[in-house]
Amino acid sequence: MARSVTTQRKAIYTIVAWGIGLLIFFPILWTILTSFKTEAVAIADPPVFLFFDWTLENYAVVQERSNYMRFLWNSVLLAGLSTLFGIIIAVPAAWSMAFVPSRRTKDILLWMLSTKMLPAVGVLYPIYLIFIKLGLLDSRAGLIIVLMLINLPIIVWMLYTYFREIPGEILEAARMDGASLRSEIIYVLTPMAIPGIASTLLLNFILAWNEAFWTLNLTAVNAAPLTAFIASYSSPEGLFFAKLSAASTMAIAPILILGWFSQKQLVRGLTFGAVK
Amino acid sequence: MGRITLEKVTKSFGDVNVIPPLDLDINDGEFVVFVGPSGCGKSTLLRLIAGLEDVSSGRIVIDGDDATMVPPAKRRLAMVFQSYALYPHMTVRKNIAFPLRMAKMDQAEIDKRVNGAASVLNLTDYLDRRPGQLSGGQRQRVAIGRAIVREPAAFLFDEPLSNLDAALRVGMRLEISELHKRLTTTMIYVTHDQVEAMTMADKIVVLRAGNIEQVGSPLELYQAPRNTFVAGFIGSPKMNLVAGAEARKHEAETIGIRPEHIDLSDTDGLWKGRIGVSEHLGSDTFFHITSDISSEPLTVRATGELSYEYGAEVYLSPRLEHLHRFDAQGLRIA
């Protein structure tokens, strides 16, 4: 009897989970479907789900109207470099917080996280002024710095929790075995931390890629990434849902593919340390 | 060589003084056990010797050289940790070879030594496995293998057996003793288990709150504990300590008598008592007996199998030649 109850429960949970999953995914699916419709079908009432004349026309128009590759390149550059620099700064920080904590380490960590709770728009004005003064508006360098800084707390936190999982005794054992600090880091710590560093890189890349507030406010043309590319298709006067959808699909495709291939790594990264 | 001397070593963590000034001599080839209750500073003391913690003041001398400021990697000491601390991403072979690789030894010599250690420790069949695929006892052997290959001046063991089950612990205890007899290298061994201390040590250092309470051979500690703390800590079951009127009859503040030095009788004896819980081990029987002379129940160890009803009245006769006497400070009266 007990067994059948569990099976029944399992079935219910499975259905509920799939339901929630599909619900979350539906807007993305709808966007992708819409990108293959004509503008007329895209706004048809009642909406058409699958049975319409599939067309690639929107993609052609979008390609023609704007330089997708330039936006893509900017996105790759901004997300990639801000993540890379973030990791370079965060690794030593997380390292020292995890292995040689001081009395204030916990406070510093919480304070860092608290900056993420601040509404970004609250500091838009000062940062905008600083950008004007420094001539950083619409520059890739400026945006890389801002993206790196806003994600730094998350990178430090993620790495910190990873490093905390590495038992200190193993590092001490390496020291007793005659390893210098350099050998200790190269042969013992890094191999053990690689999964953590990898998922931190990945998550941060996605966060930086999707970042829209700063990229929209601080760029115009030169440094504009894919978020700006999408925004340029949401015009108030016309109904260009199909083209907007095509642009969106093109913008999210790279990160969607990256996420799909690395989902195992990502899930492990996000739930690491939660269950022990 | 492995002669280690601690001179007025102290250690404080912030305001907390863990080790007050402490002097200790460890001779070459000795098997020294630091024993004491949790938090007595025994592990800290070992980590100070290892160099994993810095001393707050004082000197640590290894083989005549001042090692106080020498980093752990340069002290020529090998350590076996409680958690084994194996490198999870390396095979057993690479784990054991790691200290040799760090010493930049050539590959032929590394292979020779690793294979040698593996055959001594029965690890030959497991050399290509990862630590995660081994049992607790095997992991412990790998940790020991990693320590012996580099032929250190001394071995440091930090409660190495406390993660093993009881049967395995007895086996590993013998293996470590055996290893010491064969290598004759200095070993410093930390444990809270006084049975491990008694069975393995040449010299036991009893610690309490960072202070050395007594240093001596297991039998010295058993036969002539310097104070009531050592008296109560060494020996199993622990010594009966009786204070008050009964002690004053023997011109002492506290008297101590070991459970194996009390005889039971139905008819006559020095003290009268009532049988409480009996523990039957087959080889011995432990009786916990309530009596008027002490608020604590007295423990009596009778050889072989002996049976008394719960609550039965008995007479106890301590063998007076084995009576320990302590003064008001708890110190032994000679």
Can you describe this structure?
The complex is a heterodimer of chains A (276) and B (334). Chain A is an all-alpha fold and 276 residues long. Helices cover 74% and strands 0% of the residues of chain A. Chain A has a domain of 167 residues: Orthogonal Bundle (MetI-like fold), CATH 1.10.3720.10. In chain A, helix 4 crosses helix 9 and helix 8 packs antiparallel against helix 9. The mean pLDDT of chain A is 84. The two termini of chain B are 37 Å apart. In chain B, helix 2 runs parallel beside helix 4. In chain B, a hairpin with a 2-residue loop joins strand 15 and strand 16. Chain B has two domains: 225 residues, 3-Layer(aba) Sandwich (Rossmann fold), CATH 3.40.50.300; 89 residues, Nucleic acid-binding proteins (OB fold (Dihydrolipoamide Acetyltransferase, E2P)). The longest helix of chain B has 18 residues. Classes of the chains: A mainly alpha (276), B alpha+beta (334). Chains A and B meet through helix 8 and helix 9 of A and strand 6 and helix 2 of B.
Briefly characterize the structure.
The complex is a heterodimer of chains A (276) and B (334). Chain A has 276 residues and is mainly α. Chain A is built from 13 helices and no strands.
List the SSEs and their pairings:
The complex is a heterodimer of chains A (about 280) and B (about 325).
Chain A: H1 2-34, H2 39-42, H3 57-65, H4 68-99, H5 105-114, H6 124-134, H7 140-164, H8 168-176, H9 181-210, H10 213-218, H11 226-231, H12 241-261, H13 263-271
Helix pairs in contact in A: 1-12, 3-12, 4-7, 4-9, 7-9, 8-9, 9-13
Chain B: E1 4-13, E2 16-26, E3 31-35, H1 42-50, E4 57-62, E5 65-66, E6 77-80, H2 92-102, H3 107-120, H4 136-148, E7 154-158, H5 166-183, E8 186-191, H6 194-200, E9 203-208, E10 211-216, H7 218-223, H8 228-233, E11 240-243, H9 245-248, E12 254-257, E13 262-265, E14 271-280, E15 284-291, E16 294-303, E17 313-318, E18 324-326
Parallel strand pairs in B: 3-8, 3-9, 6-7, 7-8
Antiparallel strand pairs in B: 1-2, 1-4, 4-5, 9-10, 11-12, 12-18, 13-17, 14-15, 14-17, 15-16
